[in-house]
Each structure stands twice: as structure tokens, then as C-alpha cells.
Amino acid sequence: GAAVIGQRPRSSGGLASVPSANAAQQEALPATASSTNSVAGSVLQVSASRMEEFLLAELSNMGKGRYTTITLVDILQHRSKEDLGRLAAMIQAEVPLRFATRVQQIKDTTPEWQEIPELVELHDMILLSFRRLRLPGLGEGG
């Protein structure tokens, strides 16, 4: 069966690995994912390979270094219970931008970055974190 985007799959059955060179990109994605449009009631089926294309396009678009500077003062201003929702939204919006930018910075360091084990490890770790933030509940392998 298909998984609903944003929800954890009920079982590990039906998961397919997306082939790639990096361990973080090999994390299992459902063979298909679906999203229900509550207004129209329609269901959209997306293959794992297409979902991977969307994720990599988003990574590329978000990795251009366009994010807001956040200071400790900014965070501390949102520490009351009433502001926690705004703080969570700010973090949810800003952290993926930073992860995507860092992935791009690693790739731009040197054309041979994939031959440096520490850079490959860092790249894969950040990419996995990006994937988990952008596709929560889909294909969590670790």
C-alpha cells in the first residue's frame, strides 16, 4: 500500500530503496506515497523515484544560502508558551534551508569531495537529516 505523506507507514512492507551513490540517499522510501487533497478528496500517487527527484530539486533550490539570520536573542524572545508555536515554525522553516546550504557547500568545496571520507560522512549525515525533516515519516531507516 501507499503511505500518506506526513504520516509514518503502518508497516515496513512495500518499501523500496532508491539507488544512489550515497548512504543517506539509499534510505528506503515507500514505493509510492499518496497525498489526499481534503478539498477535492483526490489522491495523488507519487513513485519513490519521483519523490527522490522532488527531494533533490528541493535540496538544490533551498541550498542557495538564502536564509534568515537567527540570533540567540531571537530564540529567547519566543520562549513563552504562547510563542512556542512561532518558534517551532521558525525552526521548521529555517533548519532545512541551512542543511541544504551546507550540503551544497560540501559539494562546492572541491570536485574530489567524494574521495574525502570525512566530507562524504558529513554530507551523508546532513542529507539524511534534511530528508527526515522534509519527508517526515517516509522512509525513516535510522
How would you portray this structure in words?
- It is a single chain.
- 45% of the residues lie in helices and 11% in strands.
- The chain is flat, with a radius of gyration of 17 Å.
- A three-stranded mixed sheet has the order 1-4-5.
- The chain contains four helices and five strands.
- A hairpin with a 6-residue loop joins strand 4 (32-36) and strand 5.
- By secondary structure, it is α+β, with helices and mostly antiparallel strands.
- The relative contact order is 0.18.
- The longest helix has 26 residues, at 84-109.
- Helix 1 (48-62) crosses helix 3 (84-109) and helix 3 (84-109) runs antiparallel to helix 4.
- It has helices at 48-62, 72-76, 84-109, 117-134, and strands spanning 3-4, 15-16, 29-30, 32-36, 43-47.
Number of helix segments? 4
Number of strands: 5
Radius of gyration (CA) equals: 17 Å
Mean pLDDT reading:
73
Shape: flat
Percentage of residues in strands: 5-15%
Briefly characterize the structure.
With 142 residues, this protein is of the alpha+beta class. Helix content is 45%, strand content 11%.
Q: Notable features of this structure?
A:
142 residues; alpha+beta; disordered N terminus; 45% helix; three-stranded mixed β-sheet; flat; two-stranded antiparallel sheet
